[in-house]
Amino acid sequence: MGKVLAVCISEKKGTQKKNIQEANFIEDFGIEKDAHAGKWHRQVSLLSYEKIEDFRNRGAEVADGAFGENLVVSGFDFKNLPIGTRFRCNDVVLELTQIGKECHHGCEIFQKMGDCIMPREGVFTKVLHGGRIKVGDELVIQED
């Protein structure tokens, strides 16, 4: 079981995401008003709060959304879950489609720290069922 600690979007690609506290998740599209939403396999990105905290403890000053993540969730080590894992939060159902991504080493975090956790710790999902998610909500792995 996990707890949602941030819900982040960016209205334009190439800009840092900001915590908006609550958002509408649209089936087979992503988060309403998020620039990265669309009909593809990386509609919503998730990052573990614990991994962000580890990075902060190494001296990084990063706000929620700094890595491009849509959801910051405590209680999960996402990269160790299999592709196809389904998560439920309220009415929203997300399916894990990709673990990690190729990093463009020009990102601001990599330039400052010489490292970025999103390429190895971040995961991507598609929205199987829409609804609303807000900070404080519980995220669970959906058992079939």
UniProtKB/TrEMBL annotation:
Alphabetical list of InterPro entries matching this protein: MoCF_Sase_C, MOSC_domain, Pyrv_Knase-like_insert_dom_sf
Gene3D superfamilies per UniProt: PK beta-barrel domain-like
Domain MOSC as annotated: residue spans: 18-142
SUPFAM superfamilies from the UniProt entry: PK beta-barrel domain-like
Entry protein name: MOSC domain-containing protein
Taxonomy of the source species: Bacteria, Bacillati, Bacillota, Clostridia, Lachnospirales
